[in-house]
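Example 354.
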Amino acid sequence: MPLSPSHPLVDGRTANAPLIRAYRGDRPERTPVWFMRQAGRSLPEYRELRAGGDMLQACLTPEMASEITLQPVRRHGVDAGIFFSDIVVPVLLAGVDVRIVGGRGPVIDEPVRTASDVLKLRPIDPAALDPVREAVAMTVAELGTTPLIGFAGAPFTLAAYLVEGGPSKDQMRARALMHSDPQTWATLLNWCADITGEFLKAQIEAGASAAQLFDSWIGSVSQNDYLRRVAPHSKRAFSHLRGLDVPKVHFGLGTERILPDIANLGVDAIGIDWRLPLDEANAMLGGRFPLQGNIDPAFLGARRPTLTAHVDAVLDAGHAAPAHVVNLGHGVPPETDPDVLTGLVRYIHGELPD
Ligand code: CP3
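Predicted structure in complex with coproporphyrinogen III:
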């Protein structure tokens, strides 16, 4: 099914937005910028709204998810909203008991580790995605010509949480399952691809204008294992968007060795973490992809001239690529001064001398 005639990309609201033009390989007059984790704890208005409430419950309360998504767009004037949710929301909607522990991340008290654990996993009931659709629809109605980015976790990163039961240093248990029982691993990754793919599709159908897949833990996997045991499942996640003409973006941490394989996932643009300069990434990709990134979040607390020099270097390196969407090389740290982010947006938009 194609995008509906009232989708913002189809009815003209976002088709020519700088973000969408850049994802499609163009260099608009205004360089687009947004920040991963722009909605969240760096904003006092977020902390006030969330006070005491459960994180995943907030994600599934449409008015709240929508308001939190809009907060950084209003405050910073970024070129995109990113839907306020979490990569584990589809896991929860599929009936797996997962909660988010502050300062730690997603925790699953009964990890998925054996063939029989995997066989118990069920698909998402489509009606369970209604709060997601509703929140997206409310948000895009407010955003007007600013595109909303839909997102989902990549199958490997989701599987790492499921097998480990929480965040882990090197995803040892997950990688051990990959090698000791490849069949069970493949079944688990297919399940992850399908729930995350449906979550992403629900956001796009409801009005999101781009789709980003986050593979935050992929840096622990060898190139050979990525190619054989992971990439086909990331492709499967994106395949849920077949027929929906939106830019697809991949972001992972520590992807230097696997960039050529990411290029083969069928994406339109590639996000790069802070460790790899964009001109080098561009050379490794044969100059074929718009790049997104990659201001080191560790500079956000530095003195203004130090930060500006770093941002200038990122912008310079980004000129090597066919197109550039400015972002951080990972998420906004919670202790970031929000005024620094607002200043960055104005600087990148050319509205401030330095
Ligand atoms: O602004 C945005 O980027 C949109 C919202 C968003 C959240 N999580 C909200 C959130 C997005 C895109 C994510 C993705 C996500 N979630 C990833 C991929 C990106 C990345 O950072 O690598 C991952 C690995 C997760 C899992 C997760 N959820 C972690 C590691 C945490 C942080 C735990 C902590 O307290 O440090 C969460 C919780 C979470 N997700 C918060 C937010 C705003 C903080 C929860 C709170 O407010 O208490």
